[in-house]
């Protein structure tokens, strides 16, 4: 993992077409911080996450990522865009995934070992050679977490990571998030379950009032959500 910098938004405006989704947003995600991004449906959480990943253009303002390169940023998209009909095994998704390797680059023994260890970490040991189309939604989300583990990113962006996931899997995936936090990575997760946010996320950014400067005080932010 490369050094983890602060990620700072300066007066950011995000639009879809002519429609302003978020405006005048300024604030800092401190290095190694663990933040829940909350807010009503349509408030712009996914759009902001994509902008943080460099995948949505800014209509105004600036995001300072402290020199992070695209490969230092992992985005686990909502209802991942991976085509599950594609014939590929769990181990291959994990080893080939992330932004460090294109599918046609060689995967070395170290990378395969890292993929197996990551699958083990998410409770899928023994399922390395299972086709992803034969997985349940919760098992597939575990595979995507394993893929994110292998990526060794400094900034990890998770969009509703517990949707369609049962309580045991949520608990396991939360422990992976805690590992990332303990390792000093910056983690930002879009979530709707405010009780889960209160229990597990030290900081909260509510997009309901996301115009102006935010200070991610958990209580104030949650009251506004
Ligand atoms: N591709 C798009 N083209 C036009 N408008 C879009 C597009 N994607 C999202 N929007 C609009 O932008 C607004 C913000 O959407 P976004 O998905 O960022 O919200 P969200 O807070 O993540 O919502 P949810 O909680 O429902 O996932 C919504 O009003 C949505 O309709």
UniProtKB/TrEMBL annotation:
Coiled coil: none annotated. The keyword Transport applies. InterPro entries: AAA+_ATPase (IPR003593), ABC_transporter-like_ATP-bd (IPR003439), ABC_transporter-like_CS (IPR017871), Metal_Ion_Import_ABC (IPR050153), P-loop_NTPase (IPR027417). Keywords: ATP-binding, Ion transport, Nucleotide-binding, Transport, Zinc, Zinc transport. GO terms for biological process: zinc ion transport. It comes from the Bacteria. Residues 7-225 form the ABC transporter domain. It holds the Pfam family ABC_tran. One of its GO terms (molecular function) is ATP binding. PANTHER family: IRON TRANSPORT SYSTEM ATP-BINDING PROTEIN HI_0361-RELATED, METAL TRANSPORT SYSTEM ATP-BINDING PROTEIN TM_0124-RELATED. Belongs to the ABC transporter superfamily. This is ABC transporter domain-containing protein. It comes from Rhodopila globiformis (Rhodopseudomonas globiformis).
């Amino acid at each position: 993992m490369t050094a983890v910098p602060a990620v700072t938004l300066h007066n950011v405006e995000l639009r879809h077409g002519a429609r302003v989704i978020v405006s005048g947003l300024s604030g800092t995600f401190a290095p190694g911080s663990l933040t829940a991004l909350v807010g009503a449906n349509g408030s712009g959480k996914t759009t902001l996450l994509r902008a943080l990943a460099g995948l949505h253009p800014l209509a105004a303002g600036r995001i300072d990522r402290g020199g992070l390169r695209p490969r230092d940023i992992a985005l686990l998209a909502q209802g991942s865009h991976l085509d599950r009909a594609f014939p590929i095994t769990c181990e291959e998704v994990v080893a080939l995934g992330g932004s460090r390797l294109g599918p046609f680059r060689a995967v070395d023994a170290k990378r395969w070992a890292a993929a197996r260890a990551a699958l083990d970490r998410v409770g899928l040991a023994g399922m390395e050679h299972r086709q992803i189309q034969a997985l349940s939604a919760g098992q597939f989300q575990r595979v995507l977490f394993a893929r994110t583990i292998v990526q060794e990113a400094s900034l990890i962006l998770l969009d509703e990571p517990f949707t369609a996931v049962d309580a045991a899997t949520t608990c396991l995936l939360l422990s992976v998030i805690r590992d990332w936090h303990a390792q000093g990575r910056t983690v930002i997760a879009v979530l709707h379950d405010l009780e889960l946010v209160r229990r597990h996320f030290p900081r909260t950014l509510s997009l309901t009032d996301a115009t102006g400067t935010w200070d991610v005080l958990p209580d104030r932010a949650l009251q506004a959500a």
